[in-house]
């Protein structure tokens, strides 16, 4: 009896709770979500940053560091009107072309843009630092991305195209392996074959284009050009042969000149030897003549001496002089 008394009451309570839940469900769904002041940037609207002052954040949904700066970046964007700056964000997974255009290699990455001049912000993603960076105009001391590094340059546009193609290939690979359940090696084989076929097709297209724009010469002109080419080759061969002959002749002349010089040197050395021998002979003859002259001069002197000396007397004895005698004691 107790169970029968409480049964209808419990049923009524459950029915009332379900009705309240059904009425509250549409009301909660009708509540608007909190508005985000950060503007998403894509490949179609990124040129807006070329005008005015902007701050961009490159992030990925799986990046923990990017998630840590989300609240700070939202606060910075909420105060963008006060700072007179626009704030945007780029999902590198959905927009690989923009990540290639700005050459993003680390996450999160921040960029400042002022009238189409871009600078890399390397500070922390904290609201106070970002606010001071704008108010104190610290971006003026940062070197801008100019030349080929500028995101608006032709080089970085080509880089954006390459990153876009790589992103599409990556999404296609995920579609094969995750959605369709194809093994990864089959996906790799598919991309390798597609690359080879695409290369062959591009080569064929280039050949066809070259054939379309190539105008063949008439036959008589082609024969003339062939004759002129052969004559030029023969002329070049003759010139080479003449140059080799001149080189050989010059070598022979140099050898002859060297031989003549050697013979002249030898003759000069022989003449010097002969001159030395003649000098020695002349000196020897002069010595002989001097000796003969000395001998001839000494002969008459000896005769005169012999004629002038008196003959000693044999009988007259020689008396000693008083100086020659000694006194005896």
From TrEMBL:
<dbReference type="InterPro" id="IPR017937">
    <property type="entry name" value="Thioredoxin_CS"/>
</dbReference>
<dbReference type="InterPro" id="IPR036249">
    <property type="entry name" value="Thioredoxin-like_sf"/>
</dbReference>
<dbReference type="InterPro" id="IPR013766">
    <property type="entry name" value="Thioredoxin_domain"/>
</dbReference>
<keyword id="KW-1133">Transmembrane helix</keyword>
<keyword id="KW-0812">Transmembrane</keyword>
<feature type="compositionally biased region" description="Acidic residues">
    <location>
        <begin position="306"/>
        <end position="316"/>
    </location>
</feature>
<keyword id="KW-0256">Endoplasmic reticulum</keyword>
<protein>
    <recommendedName>
        <fullName>Thioredoxin domain-containing protein</fullName>
    </recommendedName>
</protein>
<feature type="compositionally biased region" description="Acidic residues">
    <location>
        <begin position="241"/>
        <end position="283"/>
    </location>
</feature>
<dbReference type="Pfam" id="PF00085">
    <property type="entry name" value="Thioredoxin"/>
</dbReference>
<feature type="domain" description="Thioredoxin">
    <location>
        <begin position="51"/>
        <end position="134"/>
    </location>
</feature>
<keyword id="KW-0813">Transport</keyword>
<keyword id="KW-0472">Membrane</keyword>
<keyword id="KW-1015">Disulfide bond</keyword>
<keyword id="KW-0249">Electron transport</keyword>
<keyword id="KW-0732">Signal</keyword>
<dbReference type="InterPro" id="IPR052454">
    <property type="entry name" value="TMX_domain-containing"/>
</dbReference>
<keyword id="KW-0597">Phosphoprotein</keyword>
<feature type="region of interest" description="Disordered">
    <location>
        <begin position="223"/>
        <end position="329"/>
    </location>
</feature>
<feature type="compositionally biased region" description="Basic and acidic residues">
    <location>
        <begin position="223"/>
        <end position="239"/>
    </location>
</feature>
<feature type="transmembrane region" description="Helical">
    <location>
        <begin position="188"/>
        <end position="214"/>
    </location>
</feature>
<feature type="signal peptide">
    <location>
        <begin position="1"/>
        <end position="21"/>
    </location>
</feature>
<keyword id="KW-0676">Redox-active center</keyword>
